[in-house]
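2024-03-11 09:14:02 DEBUG pipeline.ingest accepted 1 chain
2024-03-11 09:14:02 DEBUG pipeline.ingest length=114
2024-03-11 09:14:03 DEBUG pipeline.predict start
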Amino acid sequence: MGRRECLSCEGYRYLLVDDDRNTSRASPPVKASTLTKESLLAMSKLREEVDLEKRRGKLDSTDHKKNLEICIRAKNNAWVIAHTMRGKELYMVLEKANETLLYASDAVEKFSNG
């Protein structure tokens, strides 16, 4: 089980940024453009939070590549997730309202390990 299996999951969008390799991958624009306004707003706020944590790490002279995972529930019941590890950042939105936090966390892990 890995990224290929998760790529077939319905109702989610992703952005993977690899600072070490200076690359990024994302859901196709057509798929990403279907995100609701609530999901986009939640993702924007979550990315601000991750950027703030990265700046804090640099100011504190600590390793700014620390591991971090934040899962929030948006107003439309979508899960919005940020997962950072070893210079990589993964952002996902799961818009299936009936999904649990455990499902969201498992989806991130499967995608990250793929």
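2024-03-11 09:14:41 DEBUG pipeline.report The beta strands are 12-18, 23-26, 68-73, 79-85, 88-94.
2024-03-11 09:14:41 DEBUG pipeline.predict end
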